[in-house]
Amino acid sequence: MFEKDTTKDQESGNGDDATLSPMVDVIEDASGITLYADLPGVPKDSLSVRVQSDTLSIEGEISLPQIKNLQANHIEVPFPKFVRTFTLGQELDRDKVAAEFKHGVLTLHIPKVERVKPRKIEVTAA
Amino acid sequence: MYRTYTSSDLLSELSRLQRQFQRLHNPTSSIRGFGLTDFPAINIGGTPESVEIYAFAPGLDPATIDVTVERGVLTLSGERKSEIEDKHDAVHINERFSGKFRRAVSLPDDIDPTQVSAHYADGVLGISVKRHESALRRLIEIK
């Protein structure tokens, strides 16, 4: 449905680059952060979840079954790509991110880093 | 105004706003609007043989989705439970829809209500409604 069909908006001029922002829910508890993202229509192999330094990026390309001679009449999801990025705090352990993807919902668990033991600082007299 | 998917790109956003303003000036939409809830977002298309509807409804149990066709109106309804509702943790962002939803689409006259199929995959509910055999365009041969 998102191929070069005749209903593509000519005015925007940048239909190829335009992306959608997926809706998310983000909660936090003592163990870390949990993120839920709605990515309907994205097959598992089109989903990309990346952590780079302190940036988490989620990308997904919608892929619907191709139907011959399909003409769009009413479009509420206009672009085929989801993109969203977040900055992560230092206390989050980016090496231990766990991800699940089911029925178009991405669930990410980002735990907090294990607490470094507090270091006692010697105070010397002046 | 629908809570439509927002684009990450400023120019596309401005274009979308422009289209929405145009719609306000020329509101020739279906008399039933397009539903009682914004969720799920719907794309509708047609082929000479069928009407195709894609409802972007992630996170549902397909057994609980209700799809009915009655007097030319296709209705899809159900409920999406929130994963975050019962947790009493800090909620930083809450954008996703939860709760009961219902959307209705007026179908054209030429459809066959006994020929409806629905398929749920990757969070998208795809519904195909075939048109009546007799309504299909026939080429008239000139002898």
CATH topology name of chain B, in short, is: Immunoglobulin-like
CATH topology of one domain in chain A: Immunoglobulin-like
- How is the biggest beta sheet of chain A arranged? 4 strands, antiparallel
- Biggest beta sheet summary of chain B: 4 strands, antiparallel
In oligomeric terms, what are we looking at? heterodimer
State the order of secondary-structure elements of chain A, H for helix, E for strand.
Answer: EEEEEEEE
User: In the CATH hierarchy, what is the architecture of one domain in chain A at level 2?
Assistant: Sandwich
How many distinct beta strands of chain B?
8
Characterize this entry briefly.
Chain A has no helices and eight strands.
Write up this protein.
The complex is a heterodimer of chains A (126) and B (143). Chain A has 126 residues and is an all-beta fold. Chain A has a domain of 88 residues: Immunoglobulin-like (Sandwich). In chain A, the strands form two sheets. A four-stranded antiparallel sheet of chain A has the order 1-2-8-7, with no helix packed on it. The N terminus of chain A is likely disordered. Chain B is mainly β and 143 residues long. Chain B has one domain: Sandwich (Immunoglobulin-like). In chain B, the strands form two sheets. In chain B, strands 1-2-8-7 form a four-stranded antiparallel sheet, with no helix packed on it. A three-stranded antiparallel sheet of chain B has the order 3-4-6, with no helix packed on it. The chains are: A mainly beta (126), B mainly beta (143). Chains A and B meet through strand 1, strand 2 and strand 5 of A and helix 1, strand 1, strand 2 and strand 5 of B. Strand 1 of chain A pairs antiparallel with strand 5 of chain B.
Provide key terms for this protein.
heterodimer; A: 126 residues; Immunoglobulin-like; four-stranded antiparallel sheet; three-stranded antiparallel sheet; 0% helix; 40% strand; B: 143 residues; mainly beta; extended
